[in-house]
Amino acid sequence: MSTTSLKLPKDIKELAAEAAKHQGVTPHAFMVDAIRTAAIAAEKRAAFVSDAVASRAETLESKKGYSATEVHSYIRARARGETISEPKAKPWRS
After folding, report:
1. d(CA 4, CA 81)
2. Longest dimension (CA), the chain
3. Range of the domain at 24
């Protein structure tokens, strides 16, 4: 395991130490977990944005989309446990 020095403002260090104490872990373990959590969230956010950009490009290319009303009805029906066919993409742009 490599060593990294992290300089924290006093107030942040105290917050981290107090939070670690409440969780029953060392301040080091608390900070490692916080960094891990933030890094994983950043990866997920980047993947989400990448997927959204690709979906937008696909939608603009196909010139098809889904009616929000139909999508909402579909989701509500599925949430109620009903079997319902998926909404169909329709042309929306010429």
Report:
1. 51
2. 61
3. 10-62
